[in-house]
Amino acid sequence: MKRVLFVASEAAPFAKTGGLGDVVGSLPVEMSKQGMDARVIMPWYRDIPQSLKDKAQALTECTISISWRKQEAVLWKIEHNGVVFYFVDQPYYFDRNGFYGYFDDAERFAFFSQAVLALLDKIDFVPDVIHAHDWHTALIPLYLEHFYRSYEPWKDMKTVFTIHNLAYQGKFSPAIIEDVLGLNWGYFTGDKLEFNGCVNLMKGGILYASAVTTVSETYADEIMTPEHGEGLDGVLRACAGKFYGLLNGIDYGVYNPWKDPYLAANFHSAPNMLTRRQKNKEWLWDELGFTGDKNAPIVAVVSRIVASKGFDLICEAISAILDSGCKLVILGAGEAGYEGYLRHIGGQNAGSMAVRTQFNDVLARQIYGGSDIFLMPSVFEPCGIGQMIAMRYGCIPIVHETGGLIDTVRPYNKFTGEGTGFGFKEMTAGSFLRVYHEALEVYRDKKAWTKLVSRAMKENFSWDHTVRKYIELYNNLCEEKE
Questions:
Q1: Which of 137, 304, 316, 339 can pair with 132 through a Cys bridge, CB separation 3.0 to 4.6 Å?
Q2: Which residues lie across from 411 on neighbouring strands?
Q3: What tens digit of pLDDT does each residue of 7-48 get?
Q4: What is the enclosing helix (H) or strand (E) of 139?
Q5: What is the pTM of this model?
């Protein structure tokens, strides 16, 4: 049995802002079902629900050195869904509202990375592989090499670093090299952490990890090009021999319309069962205050409200969507400018448009289960979870053909009836609206639409295939040391 420790800044249900939390919350659970001893370690944030904190057990503590600073760290443990979750507690760094966006984030996550390795030495668990996620934990592979590699129990330990979104790299002033990271200036060179005059933590994770992964095959190809590589395409090409694209999945135990307790009526993919799905649409219609013909399609957006998720295009297309006779619901939170504009337009179109600027997982599932069409026009998308959940719940996606959206949504072919959704190539309102009206045309053909919904619901986006790929990767890395 191989032992793996996931290190991340968030994991559902303890802390989640997006896909990273979903992945780290569910992938170890699926691995444990395959016989892996998979565990997780993350920060002990203030915002972790108290109902979960009440289940925690204190294990150990130690003093962590961050350059010249010394801070105490306490390690907590909670068993959840058959997986052990560890938590690094230091109130100065983590007893704050939210998870990110503080002036000292470099110091906070440097402390966390150091604490992970220091506390690991104090518990009865020596992983074969440490699997770090995104820039917040990118120092783990480097710290292992710099501080711990000569330590006998860890001399053969391997590291995997996963890029969930290359746009967020952890770039900081060179001043942090000694003062925060506790490294010497030999690490501030072009072949190490230096990047355009700054310290780039993600670059360090890529260079020092035994293997690097990202969250879909197409995104892996895209980010090795100058167009999508965010300046690191050359580094990724240089590391191509250890770089893999492994598609994310979703937890089918959590996202299951046949058993979801939050739906007005449960249903599955059999065509005669989709009439039960209509009850969810009727419930959602009333809940959102829609008026008029209840046969009109409900079009949904469940997303962070930010530019990268295509909200310039969505805002430009709203009038055309409403003019087409559809109802529009938008759920999410993000940039204040978009939020204000959407609430203003929603107020002007009460009865046809509903805007909820919040993160609400329960309402999100009810929207997936009751809407007809799901919009995901992301400018770029490493993998995407929303389109997978939407299809699982019978809501047909319209996506921009990029990254993981290409890998998960098969374009509908009106001649053969094949496909699971609709895609457009050019990031323009014209290109999007052409495909949108194609989708409405199919919607009006109830027989064709029912087959499309049933086929989309039967797609398999569980973790099974990707878990096998990760276990194969771990085994191959560990065989290298034997």
A1: 137
A2: 421
A3: 999 999 999 988 899 999 999 999 999 999 999 999 999 999
A4: helix 139-143
A5: 0.93
